[in-house]
Amino acid sequence: MASLGMPQPARTPTIGLALSGGGYRAMINGLGQTMALMNASDEASKAGTGGWLDAVSYMAGLSGGSWATGSFLANNGTLPTDLVKNVWNLQENLIYPSDGKVALYSNMYQNVKDKREEGFPTAITDYWALALGEHLLPSAYHMDKGANYTFDRAAQTVTKFQSAELPFPIIIAAE
Fold first, then answer.
1. What is the DSSP string of 130-175?
2. Pairing of strands 168-172, 16-19
């Protein structure tokens, strides 16, 4: 609030941002809304300060909205326009790799198998999440480096999450 030139109220409300489901369209729309809250046109926001997003405590996403929430957090709150330019791979098909290699499928199978062998339950959403991760997460979290991104790990690796500059993520997915 102070970054917007407003005094801190005696009682600060808890604000949540909810991003709807709907695949890529919901992801892009949700991060467009997020970017508006970041006040990305403002020079202060580009420097990492200011914007209404500072007042948001929680960011919840359903389906495509969860892709936006997860990608935004994993990429340290990067401006969505920079995600589109530098991180996201929206040109390639999520299911059928452009190089035609089946390595994508064997990597997904092995990662889910490893999870199951560690005693964790697995579901079809595990395969889908791995495919999405290849397109939306930083390369450090791609399958060739092991499926190694979890939200509890974000608390240790995402600097803006550690300093409470990013909203707490709530992810909703259904099989």
1. HHHHHHHS-GGGSGGG-S---HHHHHHH-HHHHTT-SPEEEEE---
2. unpaired
d(CA 175, CA 171): 13
Is 60 exceeded by the pLDDT of residue 121? Answer: yes
Q: For residues 131-165, b (16+ Cβ closer than 10 Å) or e, as one string?
A: bbbbbbbbeebbbeeebebebeebeebbeebeeee
Domain positions in the chain: 2-172
Q: Helix (H, G, I), strand (E, B), or coil: what is residue 60?
A: strand
**122, pLDDT greater than 90:** yes
Give the three-state DSSP class for 128.
Answer: helix
